[in-house]
From TrEMBL:
Protein name: Uncharacterized protein
Annotated organism of origin: Methylobacterium brachythecii
Amino acid sequence: MDTSFLATGPISWPALIAFALFLFALGRAADWVGTKLKAGTDKAVSPLTVDMAAVKIQIASQAEQLNAFKVEVARTYVTGDVITRLERRIDDMVTSVRHEMTETREAMLQAFMGRPPR
């Protein structure tokens, strides 16, 4: 059986360069992972980050309190009478606009046709 292909031979330059690049890339990858892990701990411990998180929590709490206040004001001060008056005012406004549009339409027809509309 011929096993000459298994015999070790001299290392070629491309193989040596490829191995060196592999080691360099492996070192860079390890350095990158270490940097990411260290950066994460710095951000988690940073006083500015802690203060920012506290402010975000406080803002969220105030937003909830504001919404609760708005609901309470709406329940307490907006009565059925207020809603009825608003509905009546809206109806009156729509009716007024309809009358104005009808009058404008009749005036335009009269101006274009030269005679009163039917």
